[in-house]
Amino acid sequence: PNRRTEDATITSPRIELGRLLSDSFNYVGSVYTSMLVFFAPSLFVSILIASALEDESDGVFFLLSLISYTCIIPFSSGASIFYVQRNLTQQGVTIADSMQRASEKFTQLVLATFLLWLILIPAFICLIIPGIYLSIRLCFIYYALMIENRGAIDALSRSWSLTKGYWGQIFLAFLMLGLVVALPAFILGAILGAIFGQFSPVISQ
To answer: Considering just the CA atoms, what is the radius of gyration of the chain in Å?
Structure first.
């Protein structure tokens, strides 16, 4: 915060959404290929989950989903966060180093995930708005775990502290990023769906 005079109000620096989006694409470009390695297991498990759902294998679907959301995704997220932060700050770290770090924090990552579920699921079930509000306030829990080396419970309070006074700006940033990512994906999916839809009768014959 900036203190100009004794009577001046304390103002928080604002997040410039356009610059944030531009910087994000520029920064991620240098580590994009490596990021694919971190999330390859999640993609593979997602394919298995979709296959189990299609085959109506409820037991397999539930087990794979549980493993994915409680173990694989938290691990991949933690490793990628550590990798990106270390590379963007020019501290030099390898993919193996990042996975090793995530392995060391694995228990805390899983615990943090369960804590998020305990908080967010009831909030979304009761009312959507409290769920969205809490999601933004707790969105930096993995960052606090991996970058600041905090425990799961401490990371919750740290994320709450980091987002204080910035909820609206962070929400708009996520919304903009979601539109930028989701809209092209939706258009591409519609085009591919139309193309495969035309060929499906021929293939079935």
So the answer is: 20
Which has more pLDDT, 181 or 165? 165
Cβ neighbors of 98 (< 8 A, separation 6 or more) are: 38, 79, 80, 82, 83, 86
Report the alpha-carbon distance of residue 170 to residue 156 in Å, rounded: 17
For residue 47, what pLDDT band results from cuts at 50, 70 and 90? confident
Quote the tokens at residue 111.
């615990």
What's the chain's average pLDDT?
A: 80
Tokens for 49?
Answer: 């989950």
Task: Specify whether the CB–CB gap between 80 and 38 falls below 8 A.
Answer: yes
Q: How many CB atoms neighbour CB 81 within 10 A? A: 20
Query: Residue 11's beta-bridge partner residues?
Result: 2
Half-sphere exposure of 40 (CA within 13 A, CB side): 8
The terminus-to-terminus CA distance of the chain in angstroms comes to 68
- State the virtual CA torsion across 20, 24, 27, 32 in degrees, nearest 10: 180
d(CA 159, CA 170): 12
Q: Which amino acid is at 44?
A: F
Coil, helix or strand at residue 8: coil
Place of tokens 């390695």: 37
According to DSSP, residue 139 is labeled: T
Question: In 10 A of CB 80, how many CB atoms?
Answer: 23
pTM: 0.73
